[in-house]
Fold each of these.
Amino acid sequence: MTKTPAWRRYLRFWRPNIAADVDEELRFHTQMRVAEYMARGLSEEEARRAVAARLGDVDAARVDCIEQGKLRAIHARNADFLDGLRADIRYALRSLGRAPAWTAVALLTIALGVGATTAVFRVADTLLINPIRYPHASRIFIARRMMTIDGSQVPALLPVAAIREWRGHAHTINGAEPFRLFDADLGDSTTSVTVHGSMIDTAFLSFAGVHPIIGRNFAAVETMPGGPGAVLLSEGFWRRQYGGASNVLGKVVPIDGQPRTIVGVVPSSLTIPMFRVEPADIWLPLVERTTPVVNGVIVRLAPSVAPDVAAAELDTIFQRAHLGSPGPMPMGPRRAPGSMQMRLALSRPQDDLKIRESLLMLVGAVALLLLVACTNVAHLLLARGASRRHELAVRHALGAARRRLLRQLVTESLVLALFGGALAVVVGWVALLVLEAVRPADMVALAYVTTGRGILAVASILAIGSGLAIGLFAALRVASRQLGGALRAGAMNTQLGGRRLRAALVVGEVALSATLLVGALLLVHAIVDLQRTRLGFDARGLYAVTFAMPRGRAPAERSAFVQRLRAVATALPGVEGVTIAGSPPQPRYWRMLSILETPEHPASGETGEATATNFVAPDFFAMMRMPIIAGRPLDDGSPTRNEVIVSRSLARRLWPNESPLGRRFRNALVHPDGSRDPWQTVVGVVPDMVQDLLESSTRPAIYDALSANNANPFTANSVTLLVRLKADRPTALLRQFAASVEPGTPKPVIANVRESIDQSMAEPKFTMRVLTTFAALGILLAAIGLFGVISYSVGQRTREIGVRMTLGATRTSIARLVLGDGVRLAVIGIVLGLVGATVATRLIGSLLYGVSRFDPISFTLGAVLLLVVAIVACAVPTWRATAVDPVIAVRAE
C-alpha cells in the first residue's frame, strides 16, 4: 500500500477530496484481493483477471461511491454549520443578556437609525423612485395642455375629442386613458361627507392593471348619456366608511344629490399618478357628452419612443384636428389673444412634486443619521470587544481558532441587528403613521405613502447589511491582533490604537450631528423670519367665514342673502367689525389671468400674468386696518364709475415715478364673446397685502367695489364675511352663527386669517420639524457615544488616576483631565461638522427663504448647543473619575 503524499493532507484543510479517497479505497481492496489470489498459487495476471471478474463494473461502483460520499459530506457540513450556528446564537443571546444596559442602548440605536431611514426611504421610493404602479410604468406619462403664466406652468382642460384622435392616429403611444378630477358630497344633507373622486372610462382598470376586490367594473351602458348611475369605491374609503362590508354592493348612495349604485370596490393601488391631488375615494364613469373636457390623459408610450417625440406627434394631431382652443381657464373666463399658444406636455408624477427638494434634503439628512447610528454601534461593539479581549484570549489559548472567534463575534452582531431590525420595523411603521397624521393639508403627496410590506424589506436589508458590515469590522478589529498578549499583566492599558479608533468614531458622530443641527437651525431661523413678515393689514382677531351661494337664485336675491348675513354677524356680541369680500386673504387667493395696459402704453406682449383681484365692500380697508396711502376709499357709486383701488406694487409698475390717482388701465385679454374689459380708474392706493409668505415678490392686486347695487360678484359660487372678534370672544360664537343661517345650505368654512396665511409655510415647517427630529436623534446618539468612550477611558485609566491622586493630584485637576478629553473630542467633531454644514447647506439653499447659508447665528448656536451636550455627556464619567479611591485603585492592579 502506497503512503498518502503529504501535500494531499493539506488539501483537506478546506474539504475532503472524495474522488481521491474512493480511488484509494478501491485500489486498496483490489491489491488485497490480488495478493489473496496470488497466495493461492495464481499468477499476478490471473489474479487480476479473477479480481476484475469478482468485483464487476468497478467504474460504476466508483461513480456511485463518489456521489454518496459527496452527499454525506454536504450533510455533514450542513450539520456542523447548523450546530455551530445554534451554538453561536445561544452564546450570543447569553452574552447580550449579561450586559442588558449595553444591549438596550445598541438596540435602541439600531431601531432609531434604521427605523427613521426606513420611513424616509419608503417615502422617497413612493414619490421619487417608483411613483407609478401601472404595468410598464417606465412608459407611463400624463399628457396635459400647459400655458406659461408668471414663469410657471398652468394646466388647461383638455377636450375629450382629442383622445379619440390620438387613439385612432397616434403611432407613438399604445394606450390613452382620460380622467376628470372632482370633489363631491356623498350622502344626504345630514350625513354627507366630502369625497375626492375621478371620472374614468371602462378600459381604465385594465390599463392600470387592477381588478375590483369585490364587484365589477363599469359597464358600457353606464358611460352613456342617461345611463344608470354607478360608482366604484376605493379600498381605503370602503374600509373607513363601510367597515369593509361586502354587502355594500348594490347599495344606492346620493352623490351631489344624484343617486348612484355601488357596483364594486377597487384596490388602493389604483390612483391617478398626480401628487398634487388627493387620492380618489370614489370613481365615476366618464360620460363624454356631459363631461366634454378632462384634466389630463394617461398615455403609455410605445417601446423605445422618447417622450419628446410622442409629445410632438400628439400635439400635431391635436392641432390638425382643430382642437387648439384652450377651453375654460382655471383663473377665470377670459382667453388670451390667438397668438398666445399653449403646448402639450408629457410629465411624470415626480416632475410636479412640490416637496421634491425637501424630500431630497430629508433623504440626505436621514442618511447622515444612519451613519451616526452605525458609527455609534461600531463604537459600542469595539468598546465591548476591548473589554472582552481577556475572555477571547483565554478561549484562544484553550484551542479556539481565530476564525471561530470571528464567526462568534459576527454572529453576535447579526443577532443584535436582527432584533434591532425588528424594532426598526415598528419604528418605521409608527413614523409613517405619524407622518400621515401630522402632514399639512397642502402636502397631498404624503397621502400616497402607505405602510405596506415594502417597509419590512427595506428595514431588513438596512439592519442586516449594517449589522454584517459593522460586526465584521469590529470582529476583525478585536480578533486580528495577537490575542495571547491580552493575558499579560497590564495589557488592557496598552491598547492606544483601540482608544484612538473609538475616539475617531465619536468625533465622526459629533461632526455628522453638527451638520444635521446646523441645517435644522437654519430652517428654524428661516421660519421665524417668515413669521415676522408684515402682512399689510392687521390679522389679529380676524376670521373669514366663507358661505356657498344658494343655488338657483338671481343675483339680486344672492345680494340680499349676503346683506342679511352681514346684518346678523354685526349684531353678534363681541364683534368689532364685519365686511364683505369676494375671497378671503389666504395663500390660494383668487387670481385673474391678465395683460394690463394703459392708454399711454398699450399691451404688446403675449405672456400673461396672474393678478390678484377681489371684490370688496367700501369699508373693507377700514375694517382690515389697511391705510389708504394715496387717494380715497371706494364708495357705493364706484362700481358704476369703474373705480378701483390698486396695490402699491401695481401702481409702481404701471406708473413708475408718477401719481396713479385718476389714471386708467384695463385687462387687454379678450372675453370668449370677443369683448374687452372697460377702462378702470384708480382712486386709491393701499399697501401690498401678503397672503402667501413663501412668495418671493408681492403679487399686484386690484380691488373692485362691492355694493348692494352691484350684483356682479354675487354670481360667484361663494362669498366671504370677514369678522373681527375681540380677543376674549370664543370662535364658537361664529360656528353657532354659521350653523343658524339658512338651514339646508352647505356648511360655511370658518378660518382664522392669520392661521390660514401661516399655512403657506406648512411645507417648510413640516420639513423643519422632521429635520429637527433627526438632528435631536443625532445629538442623542453622539452624546451616548461620547459618554461611552469617556466612561471606557475612565475605566481603563483607573490605576493611572489612582497614581495621580496618590502623588497629589486634586479632584478638580482629575475632573479637568477627564472633561478635557471629552471636550477635546467634541470640539474637533464640531469644527469638522461646521465645515461639513457649510458644504451641505448648498442643498437647502432654496428652502431658506432669504436666510444666508452662512448665517452666523445658526452656526454659533449649533456649536454652543453641541458643546453643552458634550459637557453633560461627560458629567457622569467625570464624577466617577473624581470618586476613585487611590489606595483601592493601586491595590486592584
Note: Residues 6-13, 325-340, 489-494 have pLDDT under 50 and may be disordered.
Amino acid sequence: MSASSTEAMEYSLSRPCRKAPRWDIETDIAIIGFGASGASAAIEAASAGAQVTLFEATSGNGGTSALSGGEIYLGGNGGTPIQKAAGFSDDTEALYQYLLMAGGPNADAAKVRLYADNSLKHYQWLLDQGVEYKNSFIPQRIVEPDTDDCLIWSGSEEAWPFSEQAKPCPRGHTPKFMGMGAGRYLMDKLAARVVALGVDVRYDSRAVSLITDEASRVIGVVIRSAGTDQFVRARKGVALCAGGFVMNREMVKKNAPWMLQSNHPIGTVDDGSGITMGQSVGGAAINMSEGFVTLPWYPPESLIKGIFINERGQRYINEDCYHGRTAHHGLQQRSTRLFSLQDSETYGEPAFGLFAKIGIAGTGDSWEEVEKELELPAGSLTTTVELYNRFAAEGTDPLFHKAKKWLKPLNKPPFVALDCRIDVCFYPTFTLGGLDTLPTGEVLTADRKPVPGLYAAGRTACGLPRWGEGYSSGMSLADATFFGRQLGMSIAKAT
C-alpha cells in the first residue's frame, strides 16, 4: 500500500484532524463548495481583501443551485422596481411576517429580520454581479416561467393562513433567461465574479476532515484530490457551503424517513458531508426532519378550482396554496393514492403532466361513477364533493379556507380524477435541516456558542427555509446568496 493511500484512510468527516503533519496550502479563508452560497461568500470575502481558496468536490461550479429555476425571493422596503412597475407596494413588515410564518415553528427571527430589512439591497447586489431581470410580471399561477419574464407568485402569499397575517405580494424574481432552468445562468454570473476577484478555485477537491488546534479552534481542512490528502491552513476560518444531505439516503432514513416516500431527490453531491464535518467539532444540526417536496400539478391555474382527496375520499388542503404545500400535505396522508378532482369547466391538461407523470385515474358523468372507478369506499368521495359544492356555491370554504376567487362547485359533467399517486408521479425532494448558525455564519454548538473558526451557509446550514409546509420557490437561493454574503463579510473580518 502506498504512503498516499495509507494517509488517505486516516481522516474522516466525523472526526477532526488534531494535528496536521504539514501545510500544503495556506490561505485566509477556505470555502467548501462552489454553489450559490460558496460563490457569494467568496465574492464578499475577496472584495474585503481576504485571500480566498474555494474547494469544489466536482469538476465544475454550480451544485444544486445550477439545477434550480434561478428564482430569488425578494421584496420589502416598498418593493423592487419590478414589483412597483407591476402595481405592488411590498411592505417590509409584510415580507418579515410572511417569512416568519414560512419558517414554521422553529423560524429564526433574527435571520428573517435581517433579510426582510435588506432584501431590496440584496436585489441591487445581484444586479451589481451582472444578473439581469426583465421588467415584467406574470399574474397567472405558474411553477416557473418558460420565457425570460421575471416576477411571479412563487408561494402561498394569497392563501390561508398566510394571507390573514401578511399582505400578499408576488416576490419570486427569475433572471432574464429564456426558458426554464435559470439557475445555471445565475451561477455563471456569480462564478464569473468569483474568478474576476482572483479567488483560487480548485475543482475535484473534496473536504474529508476539519483540522483543529489544541483549543479546538478550526484552523484548516483536509482536502482529498487525485487520491492524495492536502492539508490546508485557513488563518481566518473554514466555511462549509457543501449542500444538504438528500443524496445520502441512509442519512435521510435516519433523520427524515418520511421523505423516502419519494424516489426523486434533487441534488448533486448533497451527501451531508458539510453537516457531518460541522458536527465533528461540536456544531449542532437542527430541523433535520424537515424537507421540501412538490408535485408540479398546475398550470393551468383553473386546476386550482378543483379539490385534492386521499384514498379515503377526504379533502386535506386548501388547493390555492403553493404546489409544494399541497404535496407536503399529500405525503402526510398515510397512503400513496391521491387524486385531484375536476369538472369539465376546471379541467385542463397539466402543463407538466407528462413530465410529472400525472394521468387520468377515473372519469364519469357523475361523481358516483368516478368514486366507483377509483374503488373508493361508497359515499366517501360523493359526500366530500357534495359538502364542498354546497359551500363553494355560497363563496365560502369553512373547512380549509380556500380564497373565494378559486371556489366553484364541481357540478359540470363529465368529471375527472387526476392521478397524483406518490409512488407513480414525480415528487422531487430536498432537505431543509442543517447546522445551526448565527446570521453572520458562525456555526453554533447545542448551547448556541460559536465554534471558533467555523462558518456555514446554504443548505449545509439551517437558514430561512426550514419548514416544508411553508416553503416558497426562491427562498433557497435567497438564503444561499444573502447569508453566503453575510458569512463572507463576517469571516473576512475575523482575526
Note: The first helix runs from residue 3 to 8.
Amino acid sequence: MGALDELLAKWRENPDSGTTLALCTYLGTSHREDLIREVGSTAEAWHKDDGQVMLAVGRMYLDAGFMQEAQAALVAAGKLSPNASMPYRYLGEVLLRRGDAARAEKVLARSLQLGGAGADTKMWHDRASVYVALQTRVGMRAVADEIERTIPKRNSIPPPTMKPEEASRLAGTTTSRQGVARNVPPPPKLVPSVPPPPVLHDRGHGGAKPAGGGARASAAEQRLPAFSENDIPTNIFDGHLLGRRVQSDGNLADALPSSNPPIVSSKPPPLPTAPAATRRPPTSTARAAAPALAAAPAPRMPPLAAPALVPPIAAVAAPTTSRPAPAPRAAPLVAPPPPSRPSSPPMLALVPGVGPARSIVESVDDSPNPSAETILEHLALVGVFERSGGALPTWATPPRERPRGTWLFIGAIVLAAGGGYGGFRYAHQKRVERLAMAQELESQVKKALETGSVDDLTKTDDKLSRVFDLDSRSQEAAVLWLHNRVLSALMLPSEPRGIESALARCTTLEVDESRTVSGKITSFLTQGDLAGAAAILPKWDEKAKADPFYHLAAGAMLERAGDVRAVGHYKQAFDLDPDLVVARLFHAQLVTLELGIQTGKPLIEDVVARLGDTPSARALRGLEWALDPQSDATPPDGARVAEADRTKLATPLLALPFVVDAQTAARAGKTDDALAALDKALKATATPAMASLIGQVAIDLGDERLARAATLRALSYSALYPRARSLAARVALLGGRLDDAKNAIQELDAKSPEVAVVRAAAAYEALDLSELESAGGAIGTDGPGRALAIGMNIVFGRKYPTPAVIAEIAVPSIPWGDLIGVDAALDTGNVALADKIVSRWGDRASTPTYALRKARLLRYQGKTEDAVKVSEDALVAGGVTPRVLVERFHALVANKNIAGARDLIGQYPAVLGPMTDFLKVSLDVADDKAARAKVLAARVEPPPDGSPLLFQIIAAEAFMGVGDPRAKPLLGVLMHLVPKDPELVLEIRK
C-alpha cells in the first residue's frame, strides 16, 4: 500500500484537520477527481469553521483546475480569517483565471493591505489592474484566455515530502535508529564487456598466436566469451575506466591510486611492411575460430598513467578502405631509443591494420623528455605522421608580412570613442528632453485637478500615463496620480479603483507619508469604513496640516459622517491652495445646507465667479433658488442644469438639479411631478445633509413615505447626525406618532426649535399646561412653531385664528398645523372648513391623533355610529390621551352605549384625572339617574381659573345636566370664549 493510500485510509477513519491538510497537499496534482471532490465536500462539512482547512481545500481545487469550487472555498476561508492575506491572494488568482479582473484587483489589493507583500501577490495585483480595461472592453473570457496564455497554471501547494522512514520503506529498506540502512541488497557487479585480445599475425612465422602467450592462459581466462572485431567496445578508453584494472575473472575493480608512474615500454612497435587490409565483418571462418580465440589469455590491465595521452578509439581505428602503399621513406632522423625499462603486462592497443598489436600504454613515455620515436608513435596514432613513408619535411623561411592598417586601427578607435561620446551626449539630451516634457505634463495635470471639473479630471488619466512613460521614478507624478484617484473617488459616481495601487507606488518611490494620508482616508471612505477613516485624523492633523488634499479628504469624510467640522477642513484646504476650486465648491454647498441660505449665499457667489457658466455653477445657483423663500416661482436660466450636462456634475452635486425640478413642480401645483423628481434626487444623494434637505421638501409636499425614506438614508450615513434625527421627529409628527417623535429627539438640545416643536405637540395633546408653556417660549411665532403657538391659545380658549389663518397653517410643512387647524375650526363652529381639511388627509386619518379629529367631526355631523368606529380606532392605535378618552366617551353616549362609556371611565381614571367625576355625573344624567347625579355633582368643585377649555366644557355639561346653579357663571364664560362651539350648542339644546 502506497503512502497516499495509507493516508487516505487514515483520513477516512478520522477526517481531522491535520489529516485533511496533509491529504489536500497530495491530491492537488493527483488528477483524482473523485478523491478531490470527496475530500473537499467532507472538509466543507466537518471543518467549515476552520480557516486553515478551507484555505487548503481552496488551493487543492485551484491546483486541480476546479475554479468555481476553489472560489467558494477561498471565500469561506477569507470570512473565517478576515485578517489573513493568503485567502485573498489565492482568491484573487482564481477570480483572475476566471476572467473577473475587476473583482480580482480589489481582492488582491486587500491582500496587500493585510501584509501580503510578496512578489507573487504584487505580480497578480499588477496583472489584475492591467486586465480590468480588457475585461471592460472585450469581456471576462478574453481575460481568462490571456491569463492562461501568459501565466500557465502551476501548483500553489509545494509537492509533499516524505519522512525518512517512509522513503526507506518505499525503497525496500529499514532505517535503524542510527540511520544505517539494514537489509540493503548489494549493488550489482559491473562486468565491462572487455573482449579478449585479437589474433596477431606474425609476419615472420605466418601463424596466429595470442599476444600474451596463449600457453599461460588460465582456466578463468579461457572462459571469456568469443568476440569479433565489431565487438570492440567504444568506451574502453573512457574516463570511467581510467584508474581501474581488469581482474582475472572479468570483473572491474577499483585500482588503488599510486604515487609511482606506471611502467610502460618505450620499445617502438615493428613497422608494417604492407598496408593493412580493409576491415570487413567477420566471416564464418572467423566465427568458427571463436572457441580458439576464447581460449586465448586475457592480459591484465595496469593503471593508466596519463588519461590525456590516451587517444580516443576513433583516432586509432583502421581505415575502412584500402589505400596504395606509401612511397619508400628514408631512415628516420631520430636518436636511438633509450634502454627499455621493465614493464607490467601490456594492455592491447586493438588497432587493426597497423601491424602486430602492441600496448598503447607501452607507447606512453611519461619522462620529462620523451624520445622521438615516442612522439612519432603518437603522431601516427592521430593521423599526422605516416609510418610507411612520405616526403621529408623541409624548412622554409616564411615571407615577411607587411604591417596591416595601423593607422586604420587607430582611426577605428577614434571613431568608436567619438561614437560612444556622441551616443552618450545624445542619450543625455534625450533624457533631459523627456524630463522637461514630463515636468510640463505634471504642471498641466496639477492645474486640471484643481478646477473642480469632471471633464478635466478624466482627461488627466492619459496625461499621467504619458508622464510615467517619460519618467517612471518621478515622486511628483506618483503624488499627482494619488490626488487623481482621491478626486475620482470624491467626484465621480462610478466605483473608485486604483487608490491602493497609487499608495503602493508612492511607498515604492519613498514619498513622504504625510503627502499620502489623503489616499488612506479616501480608501476607508470608499469602503464605507467611516470609523477607520476618523481614527486616522488625530494622528495626522498636525503632521499633514500643510497638505490641502489631506483637508479635502478629511472634510469629505466628516461631511459623509454628518460632522460640522467638515466646514473647517474645507476652508483650510482652499486657504492652503487658493486655486483648489473643488474645495470651495464642496464648502459652499455644505454651509448652505447646514447654516442656511443667508450664510451660504456669499460663498455661492464667490464660487460661481470662479467657475463661470459651468454645470457646477448652475447647480449651486439652483440650490440658492430652491432654499430662498423670497425667490420667484420659476428658477432663472442660470439655475437650471440641462439633462446632457448633469453627468458632468460632481457626486455631491448630482441631486441638486432634481431638487430644483421638484421645487419648480411643487410651486406650480404639480405634486406628483414634484414627488417623482424628489425620488430621483434621493437616489443620487451622497451626503446626510442632502438627504435631510430632500426629506424636508417631501414633508412640505405631505408625502410621509418619501420623507421617511429620506430620513433613513440620512441616518444610514450617520445615526448621530442632528439634522437627520430632527427630520425623523418631523416625519413622526407628520404621521401623528408622538411616541416616535419623542424617541427621535432624545439627547438633542432641548432648546433647539426642532426639539421644542415635538415637546409642544406632545403637551398640546396631553393638556400638559406647564410643559406647553415651557416649550412655547422656544418655538416662536413664525416658521415651524407657528401652529403650536396658536394651539397654546386654543387650549385655553383665549384667541382663535381667522379661517384664512387656519387654512394657512393646515399644511404638512407646518408641524401639527392641520390638527390645530381642525381643532380651531370645530371650536369656532366652522364644520365645513374642518371637513375640507380632513378630506386631504388620506391614509393619515387612521393614526390616533388624526382619527380623534375625524371622530369629533363625524359626531358633530350626526354620524354617531361612524364616530364610534373611528374613535375606537384612535383608542386602539395607542394614542391614549385625555382628548381621545373624552371624545370616545361622547361618541358612546351619543350612540346610547352607556355601559361602554362607564367601562371606559373605570379603565382610565388616572389619565382623565379631575374630569372623571364630571363625566360620571353626565353619564348618570344620560342613564336617567338624576338623583345620584345630583349627589355626585354636589361633591365636586368647579374647575379653577386657567383650566383647559376642554375641562371647563365638561364641568359645564355636568352642572347643566343636574340643574346646578354653578353652571350659569361657567356657561357665561364659555359663551364669551367659544359661543359657536358645537359641544355647548348641543348641550344647550338639550
Note: The chain is about 60% helix and 0% strand.
Amino acid sequence: MLVLRKQVASVIISLGALRCFAQSDSHRAEIDKYLQPYLQSKNFSGAVLVSNDGKEVFKKAYGFANRENRVRNTAETRFHIASVSMQFTAAAVLRLVDSGSIKLDDRVGTLVAGIEGAEQITVRDLLMQRSGLPDINGFPHYAEVLQHHQTPSSLVAKIEGKPLLFEPGSKYLHEEHSAYNLLALIVEKKTGMPFAAAVEQLVFRPAGLSQSGLDDDSLPATPQIANGYEPEGTDGLKTAQAIHWSAKTGNGSAYTTVNDAVRWVDALFSGYFLSTASRGLVLDTSTRVGYGWFRGQNKRLGDTAYYMNGRAPGFSSFVLYLPDPRLTVIVLSNIYSSATTTMGYDLAALSLGRQYQSLHCRKITPAVLKRYIGAFQFGSDFYPANATVNLALRGDALVMLWPSGETSVLIPLGNDRFVDRSYWTEVQIERDASEKPQALIYDQFRGRVIH
C-alpha cells in the first residue's frame, strides 16, 4: 500500500521542542482545528483518539456512520480496519505459540497441504511476511474473489500450486495477504474452531475488546457499524462498492472502535497479554516488518515507532505507538482515503511539540488545469513498473489515469502541487523554462513527459 512520506500542506506550524501532553482545552482545540480541513474537504469521517501513559489526551468522533440516514459517528462506532487486522491474526498465533500448540519454526507443510514450498516456509516466515508466497491481492481476478463468501480454506486454495516469488525468509517484498490467509487456516486447524470464533477466544475476550470482531459476512447492519464511502471528484463522496469481508480473512476482516483500539495497544505493549518471549518478538526492530506491525526509528518523532495502516473499500485506518512517551494515536475512518496515515503522524508530532503541517485545499478552474494535461513515463522502480501515467480532465477535476484503468483524482494544494485523493500521495509538476510540463513527481518517483 502507498503511504505519504512527505506531508502535503502549505503552512508549517511549530509548537516548540518540548513535549506537550497537557489535557488542556487549548491542546484539544489545536487537535480539533488540525482535523477540520480533512473533515470539511470530505477526506475524513470517523473517530480519533490520542492517549499518553494510559490517559486520554483527545477523543472525538466526526462525520456520519451512515450518511443517508444522518447517523453520526461516535467513539463507539465500529469501523473495518483493513490491514490493521493482521495484528489480531498474529496475536492469535502467538497465543498458540505461548500455549505450546504451535512452534514458530514449524514448517507449513506439517500443518497445511498443497502449498508450493511448504517444506521451506515456517510459521515465523508467515508472521513476518517473508514467505515468498504469491499474493492473492495481486491476482487479476481478485475483484471477483471479493464478491463471494470465502473461508480460509477457499482463499488458500487459490494459491495452491503457484510458484514462490523468492526464497522463504530471505526478504520482505510487499504486504503478504496470502500469508495471513494461511495463518488463519492454521489457527482453525489448531483450535478446531472457525477463525472468527478462535480469535474471539484467543485475543478479543482476553484483551477486553468487547466491541471488536472479525466480519465473516454474518455481521448484522446496525447503527453501530459504519458504512463505507469512497471519494468522488475533488470533494464528493459515494457509497463504496460492497464486498464480502470474509474474502479478507486473516489479513483485513477485523472491525473495532477507537476505545477498543487503544485498549488493544495497551494490552499488547504493557506486557501482560503475551509471554515475555512473544512480546519481545513484536518489539524487535531488527526487521522493519513483523507480527502485524511496521517497526523502527522515526527521525521525525524522535522515537522508535510501531505503526500500521489499513485501506479497504470504504475504510481507512492508522495505529501508532511510541514506547518512550507511551503515546498512542488511533485514526479510524469510513472514507476510502489514506489521509489517515498523514493525520496520525501529524497528531503525534503535534502532541510531541514537533512540526506538523495543516491541510489547505485550493480551487483551480478547468481552464488552468488544462496546463497539466499530458502523459508521463516512469521507470522500473515505480508502481507499477515502467508505467505511463496520463493527466486528464474529468469534468472540473484533474485526474491521473493509471495503466490498470484506475483513476486518481488530484486535489490542488498550490501552484503545480497536488495530492492524490485516494492514496494521499504528494504530486508535483516540474516545468521547463517555457513553463511547459517537463516531469511528474509522484511521491519520490519521477516520470518524464512524453507528449
Note: The domain at 366-449 is CATH 2.40.128.50 (Lipocalin).
